[in-house]
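[step 3/7] inverse_fold.run input=structure_tokens len=551
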């Protein structure tokens, strides 16, 4: 534990160094040094949180006596984001980017009314430095910039919220507010759905979030430093404010006998090591191999309904996807709340397809992509496109088949290395950049097509597994096409129709060409492209995931 305390003290010292370096940085080389130092501090802080989360939570409730307001705010902002990212089960890379941005923004000294994060972003952009750090910082305070939330990086609004709360927790060197008061005021006065959702996520850590590191006084006017919960009581250390002395021995104190005091000025010391909080539950981000290895499809009984029900009930996330699917699939489009009812709707023939689709959707959700909402709607559009054109296949496709094929074919996009840093509204040459990146990635045989083929083969859609590998191969004039090659042309056409609607005006010309090509092999109605686009737009549940009002 002494090592943990020393590392916390080192981080505070390094933040002072970072703050001084940022004040002097005006060249690309100096800014790169600041970026590197922020990464190093973030890495060390992440390790400290993993080893003892209680020591981190306590930073929210004290005024550290040996540092400046800016450094205290930086730590508080960082701690909030560290717990948010863990509660959201973010990948480490995403967690580290927002953590580094928090340290940089909070350690930058304001020189005008403009927020420090935006000042730093402008400097980084001017020096062509920072990459994704610049994108996240530049998207903070989007309301002040009169921008919509979808016009900035997806994690910028959360960084803004953390910076705002940290500033309210300690507005200056000599005063601080209790976290529960700050959050209660925000919840009572905010109408922002995003902000309220984030605060509710953070509230999962209550009351530990509010109490660890707080001072309290009992009926005998003795002071106590609260450490952690112990049944109905709280383990606490006696504190003598006159001598600024803290006992080494924990005592169990009923909270009902204590009156909480405002956050106090305390030096980091051995008392931090007395706080013991159970680490947050971690959720391993699945890989394609683990998705296939852990699939329950091979265990699914095809004749015993009760056995099917019992197996699926063990997987709560799958259950929710199946309920959503059943609500969408039943003829009346009514909400389905019972798993037994959902399985009955699918029937024995469609159930394996529905379970397979739920497995892929769960896998994609657990990737925690910043673009999950956008990609999910792109996948919905592809599914409707497959259903629409699939009517004219020799073996027409039903809803469950189309849903599973769309999920498998779009799955590689959740692994696209560049999508995470691109705001939804970003345009390049009058085309939506996200759409361009997705279309390019789908062409890659190793990183994209092979993953889709492996998933389709695992779910026993062998013809489609071959088709996905051949979908971008250009047929020769007069070539006799096999059924699987025709399916490849079909998939290519469905993707292009999807992009022509979802990423308009992208893919217009290529969609027209593919319609003419597909008509040679499928009995498609002789209709222009806008007919097919309108048919897609008429599909239920198709919408573009952008806010209509500034968030």
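[step 3/7] decode complete -> sequence:
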């Amino acid at each position: 534990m002494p090592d943990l305390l020393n590392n916390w003290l080192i981080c505070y010292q390094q933040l002072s160094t970072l703050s001084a370096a940022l004040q002097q940085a005006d060249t690309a080389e100096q800014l790169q040094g600041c970026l590197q130092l922020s990464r190093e501090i973030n890495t060390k802080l992440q390790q400290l949180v993993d080893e003892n989360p209680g020591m981190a939570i306590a930073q929210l409730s004290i005024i550290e006596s040996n540092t400046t307001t800016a450094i205290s705010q930086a730590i508080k902002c960082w701690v909030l984001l560290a717990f948010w990212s863990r509660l959201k089960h973010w990948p480490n890379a995403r967690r580290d980017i927002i953590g580094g941005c928090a340290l940089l923004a909070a350690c930058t000294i304001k020189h005008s009314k403009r927020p420090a994060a935006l000042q730093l972003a402008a400097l980084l952009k001017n020096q062509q430095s920072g990459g994704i750090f610049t994108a996240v910082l530049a998207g903070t305070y989007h309301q002040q910039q009169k921008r919509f939330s979808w016009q900035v990086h997806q994690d910028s609004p959360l960084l803004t919220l953390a910076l705002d709360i940290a500033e309210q927790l300690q507005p200056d060197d000599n005063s601080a507010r209790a976290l529960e008061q700050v959050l209660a005021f925000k919840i009572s006065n905010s109408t922002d759905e995003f902000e309220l959702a984030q605060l509710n996520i953070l509230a999962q850590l209550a009351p530990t979030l509010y109490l660890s590191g707080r001072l309290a006084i009992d009926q005998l006017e003795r002071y106590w430093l609260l450490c952690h919960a112990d049944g109905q009581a709280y383990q606490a250390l006696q504190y003598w404010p006159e001598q600024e002395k803290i006992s080494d021995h924990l005592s169990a104190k009923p909270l009902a006998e204590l009156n909480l005091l405002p956050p106090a000025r305390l030096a980091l010391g051995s008392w931090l090591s007395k706080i013991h909080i159970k680490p947050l539950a971690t959720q391993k981000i699945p890989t394609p191999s683990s998705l296939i290895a852990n699939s329950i499809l091979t265990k699914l009984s095809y004749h015993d309904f009760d056995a099917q029900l019992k197996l699926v009930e063990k997987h709560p996330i799958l259950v929710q996807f199946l309920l959503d699917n059943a609500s969408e699939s039943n003829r009346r489009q009514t909400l389905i709340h019972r798993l037994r009812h959902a399985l009955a709707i699918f029937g024995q023939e469609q159930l394996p397809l529905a379970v397979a689709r739920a497995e892929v959707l769960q896998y994609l959700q657990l990737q925690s992509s910043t673009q999950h909402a956008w990609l999910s709607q792109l996948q919905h559009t592809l599914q409707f496109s497959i259903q629409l054109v699939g009517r004219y296949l020799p073996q027409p496709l039903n809803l469950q088949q189309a849903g599973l094929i769309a999920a498998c074919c779009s799955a590689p996009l959740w692994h696209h290395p560049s999508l995470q840093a691109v705001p939804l509204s970003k345009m390049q040459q009058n085309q939506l950049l996200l759409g361009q990146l997705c279309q390019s990635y789908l062409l890659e045989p190793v990183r994209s097509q092979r993953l889709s083929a492996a998933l389709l083969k695992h779910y026993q859609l062998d013809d489609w597994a071959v088709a996905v590998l051949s979908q971008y191969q250009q047929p020769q004039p007069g070539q006799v096409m096999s059924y699987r090659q025709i399916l490849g042309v079909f998939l290519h056409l469905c993707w292009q129709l999807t992009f022509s609607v979802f990423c308009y005006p992208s893919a217009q010309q290529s969609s027209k060409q593919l319609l003419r090509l597909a008509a040679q092999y499928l009995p498609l109605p002789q209709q222009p492209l806008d007919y097919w686009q309108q048919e897609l737009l008429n599909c239920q549940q198709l919408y573009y995931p952008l806010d209509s009002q500034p968030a």
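[step 4/7] annotate
The chain has 23 helices and nine strands.
The beta strands are 62-64, 215-217, 223-230, 233-240, 245-254, 259-260, 264-266, 427-428, 431-432.
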